[in-house]
Amino acid sequence: MSQMLLMLLATLPIECLVRAQVPLMSSNENQFKDSWQYSLDQQNLLKHLGGMGPYVESSGFGLPVNPPPNGLTVDRAFVLARHGERFPTVSLGDALNTTYTKLKKANAELAQPDKGPLKFVSNWKYLTEDPANYENLTWTGRFNGFTETYKMGQLIAEQYSHLYDPKQVLPVFAADKKRVYESAVSFANGFLNTNDYYSLPDSDLAVVVPISESKDSGADTLTTGKSCKPYHKQSNYRPNKRYNPTFLHVEAARLNKVSPGYDITSEDVENLCALCAFELNTFGHSEVCQALSQETLVGFEYIRDTLLYYTKANHPFTFILGSVYVNATLSLFESDKVPYNGQKIWVSFSHDTDLLYYLNSIGVLDYQLEDGDLSIDKIDFHRFFKTSELIPMGARIIVERLSDASDNKWVRVIVNGNVMPLKNCQDGVG
Ligand SMILES: *[C@@H]1O[C@H](CO)[C@@H](O)[C@H](O)[C@H]1NC(C)=O
Ligand SMILES: *[C@@H]1O[C@H](CO)[C@@H](O)[C@H](O)[C@H]1NC(C)=O
Ligand SMILES: *[C@@H]1O[C@H](CO)[C@@H](O)[C@H](O)[C@H]1NC(C)=O
């Protein structure tokens, strides 16, 4: 485990990701032991990007994924994944571009543009020149959406090779938005190790099945929210709420002091936080992340967490929206006549909101729901509900069926690489 961490740190530009002082570690054994005593996870910037940033594993609870507990074997698996790293949506992209354009203009007029943390603005390039790229997967930089979903395919193939019979066609289902469909294509390629992210793999081995996101599809879709009218009138049922941030103007004042002349507002600070996440998705590094204080990003994370919690995770309709997939999982797991041509692994790609519905319905969110709603007046630091843990770009929820030699069955949930025990269902082995 620590060795893995070391390898990871050795391959990442830690100056970009881990902004607090990280003790340098060597392979010297004594120093290696010292490293056990540092808590690095909390300093990982990817843990604070509010679901807008690159994939990062969940923190987990120390329960190993491999081998499964008590000599059990995984005999079926259901994977529900979010698309890979993408550009911002059109509306957010336009807002981010407004802040970008404003800062560039100010920079050009400054007598001393190289002062303080915003000095990078002189050479700053926007995420993309072409607004047609908005909403789509990114394809450059270490965290790009194509590579990430390809890697996901490789990891799933490695973990569940015994569930896949190459003589059969692996179907990968995808909501039909371009970024979701392309993620499924890249995943299928990774699963088959084709070394190609973009082309459809050999149809004898895998097919990608687009599923309409249109509301006309009713519940026969991976995006059940679209056709649920009352859900869209959500403010009739529950007001949209989000954390009321007081820290944004503090950060704006700090930046205006150390890098004078840009007239940074609270709104700009919020846009810079999002730019930090999307620059990592697009370029794999970000000077914007470096310029912001860690406290600001932690506050930004909470804005995102509260926003998504109230609109997508604990809205009165999310349980029912997610129960469509939970029921589907259940019927795939319950039939013992080896249905569907003997298929034992199912993979679907959709959006963060749909993953949140599923997490609600399957009981993962009970830790938060039974603990009470998130405060919007102050940051609830002890919350369970963290979007960066649950739905980063490329998020993946896996539900496994496990069985023993006497054919007893259990179910295990794995969220973003780690076992996620359910609050109200812990009576299985291990
Ligand atoms: C950003 O805004 C500038 C100024 O309005 C515009 O020229 C440019 O095309 C915009 N970029 C994108 C990607 O929309
Ligand atoms: C991004 O997606 C849109 C919508 O599917 C598409 O029209 C556009 O061509 C895409 N851009 C690129 C660069 O693929
Ligand atoms: C899921 O199954 C339960 C139990 O059979 C049923 O009560 C519920 O209506 C189903 N939900 C959906 C959305 O079909």
From TrEMBL:
It comes from the Eukaryota. Coiled coil: none annotated. PROSITE patterns: HIS_ACID_PHOSPHAT_1 (PS00616), HIS_ACID_PHOSPHAT_2 (PS00778). GO terms for molecular function: acid phosphatase activity. The active site is at H83, D352. Disulfide bonds join C276-C289. Gene3D superfamilies: Phosphoglycerate mutase-like. GO terms for cellular component: fungal-type cell wall. Residues 1-20 form the signal peptide. Keywords: Disulfide bond, Glycoprotein, Hydrolase, Signal. InterPro entries: Acid_Pase_AS, His_Pase_clade-2, His_PPase_superfam, Histidine_acid_Pase_euk. PANTHER family: ACID PHOSPHATASE PHO11-RELATED (PTHR20963:SF18), MULTIPLE INOSITOL POLYPHOSPHATE PHOSPHATASE-RELATED (PTHR20963). Belongs to the histidine acid phosphatase family. This is Unnamed protein product.
